[in-house]
Design goal:
mainly alpha
């Protein structure tokens, strides 16, 4: 779920922290990181795992990223950017309702086997996901927020898009009321 993760993560974090200067590139990458890492491995190794939610969908992964950021960076802009990556990765777990898959969420503390989807093949799993109306609702919500942010930030303008690509910042203000 691309738009759900990116849109919901950016919306939640922008309004929770009310920081108009945050680097949305790092936040969006963090929001997708668990899927970018786990989906190819799970799809290729379906006969072993029977899921695409693996290490990247564990609390251990997100907290390890956060601890590494704290250890490697110093206070300042670099740490602020990289913490967004860790924050997006951890928020991904909530957006995927990982509490419903405790073996994966708490891996390896509840054992070394990940929560299974119950599908025999990756193809059957993919068809099930694509047919799930809740997936489409999430994608629509995320896309709607991203379209709203696009319009409020005037990203139809080349200079505004260039600023986003270079700095990760958009011009859309955040209501402070």
């Amino acid at each position: 779920m691309l738009f759900w993760h990116v849109g919901a993560t950016i919306a939640f974090i922008r309004y929770a922290f009310r920081d108009e200067a945050m680097d949305l590139r790092f936040l969006a990458l963090g929001a997708l990181l668990p899927d970018l890492l786990d989906t190819p491995v799970g799809a290729i190794g379906w006969s072993i795992f029977a899921t695409v939610r693996l290490w990247g969908h564990s609390f251990l992964f997100g907290t390890t990223v956060m601890v590494l950021v704290l250890l490697i960076t110093r206070r300042g802009p670099a740490r602020k950017r990289w913490m967004l990556l860790a924050t997006g990765s951890l928020l991904h777990l909530g957006l995927d309702a990982m509490w419903n898959q405790p073996e994966t969420l708490w891996w390896p503390f509840l054992g070394t086997v990940f929560s299974s989807t119950g599908f025999a093949t990756f193809g059957a799993y993919a068809v099930n996901i694509l047919a799930d109306p809740l997936v489409w609702v999430g994608e629509a919500v995320g896309a709607a927020y991203l379209i709203l942010l696009w319009r409020r930030s005037d990203l139809g303008d080349a200079a505004a898009r260039q600023r986003l690509l270079k700095t990760g910042v958009v011009s859309a203000g955040i209501d402070r009321s």
